[in-house]
Design goal:
Arc Repressor Mutant, subunit A; mainly alpha; Tetracycline Repressor, domain 2; elongated; 189 residues
Length: 189
């Protein structure tokens, strides 16, 4: 894989700055002026590279999803789709929580902003929909009954567990969560 283009480098630099400003000041105060200052560029360059705030937010949310997908691929070590056991093992692993820490901008700032902004709420929902589809797809491949219902329940357990871990609860319970999820799915096969 070659070096990113200059355009892609600038877009990544602006996204890095966007993320830093959100974490420092909150999503509602992340103005394009502040993002430009953080990135060391002139404000019109943001519009040049993204066309506006919605496109920049979409790119940031794509980055959040891509971090999880890259970590899953690395965890599973697969050139093909990971198995259900690998997916469950990943979401119960310290690697998953490490990615969640990298995505602090999503969990601590953007989700809360969705209460005040329908576009943000819709984009956050699309991230969750994507993750849910991934879980359901793996349940279907494993021929699990009630894959939609179980998929939703697993996603809720994963997110709840991740939040609990971030708050200091759940330390050391990753293996128990993995065993519980596996048993739950085995009873539905």
């Amino acid at each position: 894989m070659g070096r990113p283009s200059k355009v892609e480098e600038k877009r990544l630099m602006i996204l890095d700055a966007f993320e830093k400003v959100i974490l420092r000041e909150g999503f509602g105060l992340a103005s394009q002026r502040k993002i430009a200052e953080e990135a060391g560029i002139k404000q019109p360059m943001i519009h040049h590279y993204f066309g506006g705030g919605d496109a920049m937010l979409d790119a940031l949310l794509e980055r959040v999803v891509q971090r999880y997908m890259n970590a899953l691929d690395n965890f599973a070590g697969a050139t093909q789709a990971p198995t259900l056991e690998q997916v469950l093992g990943f979401v119960s692993s310290p690697d998953f929580h490490q990615v969640s820490e990298q995505n602090e901008v999503f969990f601590s700032c953007i989700i809360g902003a969705g209460d005040q902004n329908k576009h943000i709420s819709n984009r956050v929902s699309s991230v969750y929909d994507y993750l849910l589809e991934l879980i359901i797809d793996h349940l279907n491949k494993a021929e699990v009954k009630n894959s939609k219902e179980l998929g939703y329940m697993i996603m809720c357990l994963i997110l709840g567990h991740d939040w609990a871990k971030r708050l200091g609860f759940g330390e050391g319970n990753n293996q128990n969560m993995f065993k519980g999820l596996t048993k739950l799915i085995e009873t539905e096969q």
